[in-house]
Recover the amino acids of this structure.
């Protein structure tokens, strides 16, 4: 629950950074609907950005939000919350060395 609250606030914050004038209530209603619909559809995590992007475009079209801004926000969310942590995690996993056993 806390994770989705943080992601929803990040999405709202990025929308405001891109200059979208939307009330907090309307934004949270659409964003939580987007996450619910995206979680219902089974996807591979690398295609998650495509599914969430298309759902977000569909939902935000009711508020006349530009498609480019919605796609940019969805892509930034994917980069910040999936790609960058995966890169850092892969670096540490690949450089991990098991300790040698003591004889």
């Amino acid at each position: 629950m806390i994770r989705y609250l943080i992601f929803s606030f990040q999405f709202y914050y990025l929308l405001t950074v891109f200059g979208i004038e939307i009330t907090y209530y309307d934004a949270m209603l659409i964003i939580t609907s987007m996450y619910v619909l995206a979680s219902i559809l089974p996807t591979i995590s690398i295609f998650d950005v495509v599914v969430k992007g298309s759902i977000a475009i569909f939902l935000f079209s009711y508020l006349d939000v530009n498609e480019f801004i919605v796609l940019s926000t969805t892509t930034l969310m994917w980069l910040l919350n999936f790609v960058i942590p995966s890169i850092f995690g892969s670096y540490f996993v690949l450089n991990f060395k098991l300790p040698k056993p003591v004889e």
User: Anything to note?
Assistant: The chain has one domain: 2-83. The longest helix spans residues 67-94.
